[in-house]
Amino acid sequence: MAGAARGTLTMRRRREILLGAAILVFLALLPLGVGNVYLRGLIVLTLLYAGLAQAWNILGGYCGQISLGHALYFGIGAYTSTLLLTRLGVSPLFGMFAGGVLSGGAAFLVGLPCFRLSGHYYVIATLVIGMMVALLAANWDFINAAQGITIPFHQESWTDLAFRTAILPFHYVMLAYAALIWLIAWLIEGSRWGFFWRAVKDDVAAARSLGISIYPSKLAAAAISGAATGIGGVLYAHYIGFIDPDSTLDLSLSVLIALPAVVGGIGTLWGPLLGAAVLIPVQQLSVAWLGSAAGGIDLMVYGALIMALALARPEGLVSFFQGRAREEAADHG
Amino acid sequence: MAEPLLAIRGISKSFGSVAANVDISFEVAPGEILGLIGPNGAGKSSLFNIIAGSIVPDRGEILFAGRRISGIGAVACARLGIGRTFQVVRSFDSMTVLENVMVGAFLHARRSAAAMRAAGEVIAFCGLAGRQDVPAHRLSPPDKRRLEIARALATRPRLLLLDEMLTGLTPTEAREGMQLVRDLRAQGITIIMVEHVMEVLLPLIDRAIVLDLGRKLLEGRPAEIVRHPDVIRAYLGDRYVA
Amino acid sequence: MSATLIAQVAIGGLLMGLVYAVVAAGLSLIFGLMDVVNFAHGALLMVAMYATLLIHRATGIDPLLQLPLVAALLFGAGVAIYRGLIARTLSVRVNAGMVQIFVTFGLSIFLVGAAEFLFGSDFQSINTSLLGGHSLAFGAIVLPLPLVASGIVALFVFLGLALLSRTEFGQALEATREDHEAVALIGIDRDRVFGIGWGIGTASVGIAGVMLANFYYIAPDVGTNFALIAYVTVALGGFGSIFGALVAGLMIGLVEALTALFIDPALKQIGIFMIYLAVLMIRPRGLFGQI
Ligand SMILES: Nc1ncnc2c1ncn2[C@@H]1O[C@H](COP(=O)(O)OP(=O)(O)OP(=O)(O)O)[C@@H](O)[C@H]1O
Ligand SMILES: [Mg+2]
């Protein structure tokens, strides 16, 4: 029983936070070893998706509500901060806050009708609402419709999140983002809400019998998940310097946000990070290496990878590590 | 009878053309262990679901500690102090035993340390101490039943509804289960148990209600119940009635 | 705006709605049978359209005459997808639904990529066919012949699906849908039923693809939009209900056409989405859904 005693919840959570800190240090030092600008950009994107997928995971993984409409919250964040900066000159540091609040609010509002639906009806409803807003945005002149908005560059500035060529500052911005969302997920896992959400995911009737209200639980998870996604949208907008409905609101983005969490391990702390670390580089590198030579091969590689991972590791990439940990525990036990 | 903890008054419930419960009335005193027996489809689980708030009755009312609870829903019932288990075990399969029980403990605990402490005590009480870090889906059937009880117990219920917790257990496991029920009562928890095998139930309970085809057939002490011709007829058929 | 124009647009919308309904029926059949949402459905439509195009180019066989051939081809593809991918996800204990969504989604990306690789991303079309270029006039109402023919074929597909339920296999399908585990006891091979179910589901989308190839552009991502509409149609009609798919398809075709006419062609899908959301608020399981 030594293994069991060591494997208690408290110990596990302590280990997780230590491992998280170690990974944070490693990622903070990583650019020192990577000189190539393209690779640095790739890492920035991976970090962004690690954060976004973790944000999605809060609702989809812990609370079990599979949303295919998260691009909506991403887009609201991106547009809010971009409009605030370009029209009113408001700093993205505030934009981040405003974008988070608005996208969290939007997720709450979307949840009000959608959480009355179950299973696949919920999935399709989130998808439809997302598509609807994307379509409206592409026809709304106030936000430049389908042309999109370019964020003009004036000077390097942290308050404007504007940097001429250096990707390095954004490495730390995205790292902070990914780390923050990870930390939120870690806190949720150990909190009353986190326990309630996982209960809601596993068995609604049993959750009710323990006094858990289902609907408010889902709404709370949605609001936090939406806000966290929206902040990612804000950071993306200022990183790229250009947004349009296609790149910030489209259904394909909703899928891209969810995918790393699923491939890595849905409802787990490390899954979204692992999934992003595998999927984003494969996707980007196959576009860079294969996409230009022969269009389509990059998609074939990416599609095949998704199929292979989903079939080989249906419980996610994290199960590689869990498997080993379990065996070890069994050896000691 | 002292002031009843639970009063069922004229409860009826139909599912389509099936009358699951017809005009059921009885009372349960604090600290009592009440057995609810009857053949398959008698309406035992249906009545449980009504008491626990997960089904709204068509007619009648239920008073719990003097408060009307019919129609307030399962969540509110749980918060008022009605705990339950399910006939088909429902565990939170992505969680360990400890985490499952902590979900229940969080009804009162705000902080996770407090929930963990409360859950640990309940787990030990239910005889799952060695298994608290085992994923719930890996438990054996009897341990899953214990887990369900522990989880409900963690919400500190005054009334506990146990639906066929002894069914499918070996005699040894059943005896352990019965001991657990006695321990629960010693804690001051009022218990209603559903079981259709009468033999296991009778030594345990103070009083029994027999349901058949949705109706209350009779109510009485175990010794009276077994001798009653209606019960023999309902269970064994007419030819056994002397 | 004349009454004839409105009538013409409405009828055209209903005919297109029949095509949507067939695409949706395939999706709904598979869902009803085994609770799997096929996210490669649009890509399979695209595959059927390219198959029609290629066969037409290589042999000159008219698309209309290719119906049985492409349907058979897609039937085979459906069985293969079930055997190769879906059957392997059935044993997954946690998040099986999620795994299925993403396996089929990966397949979709793969197929779209393959089409792009093989045929480029340019729009192509079949220019010479029996139906192409003709139209039917009913008084002042003029309808393109390929669209009318698609509508008629669609009705035959639904007739076929309705008759299917009377056959022995149809009964096995029904029994399997009701209880996956128990059918084994009465001698039904669950795997076979699932495989054939997938075959029929994708054959339906194949038929829709052939008919669309008569008058619609063909490109690697042509299926995306149809798939999206199919998901909405299935959810609107009720997951698993074939009849619901028919009714919802007609509704959606009509609403889409009228929104385009009265409001703005660019916003035609908004009409669909609004109707869908409105219905779901009143009936959370769609018009005819039980599950
Ligand atoms: N939620 C429900 N929906 C539809 N019918 C139900 C429902 N719950 C119970 N019934 C029906 O009500 C009748 C009584 O069922 P119930 O489950 O209460 O019986 P029971 O006494 O618990 O039987 P068993 O010993 O088999 O568990 C049965 O005919 C059953 O089919
Ligand atoms: Mg029962």
Write up this protein.
The complex is a heterotrimer of chains A (333), B (242) and C (291). In chain A, helix 12 (251-264) crosses helix 13. Chain A has helices at 2-6, 9-33, 37-62, 71-88, 92-114, 119-137, 168-190, 192-202, 204-209, 214-240, 245-248, 251-264, 271-291, 297-312, 318-332; strands spanning 149-150, 242-243. Chain A is mainly α and 333 residues long. Chain A is globular. Chain A starts with a helix and ends with a helix. Chain A is built from 15 helices and 2 strands. Chain A has a single domain (2-332), classed as ABC transporter involved in vitamin B12 uptake, BtuC (Orthogonal Bundle). By secondary structure, chain B is α/β, with parallel strands linked by helices. Helices cover 35% and strands 24% of the residues of chain B. In chain B, the strands form 2 sheets. A 6-stranded mixed beta sheet of chain B has the order 6-7-8-3-9-10, with helices on both faces. In chain B, strands 2-1-4-5 form a 4-stranded antiparallel beta sheet, covered by helices on one side. In chain B, a hairpin with a 2-residue loop joins strand 1 and strand 2. The longest helix of chain B has 16 residues, at 171-186. Chain B is globular, with a radius of gyration of 18 Å. Chain B starts with 5 loop residues before the first strand and ends in a 6-residue tail after the last helix. The mean pLDDT of chain B is 89. Chain C has 291 residues and is an all-alpha fold. Chain C has one domain (3-282). A two-stranded antiparallel ribbon of chain C has the order 1-2. In chain C, helix 5 packs antiparallel against helix 7 (190-213) and helix 9 (242-262) crosses helix 10 (268-282). The model of chain C has no long low-confidence stretch (mean pLDDT 89). Chains A and C meet through helix 6, helix 12 and helix 14 of A and helix 3, helix 4, helix 8 and helix 10 of C. The complex binds adenosine-5'-triphosphate and magnesium ion. Adenosine-5'-triphosphate binds next to strand 2 and helix 1 of chain B.
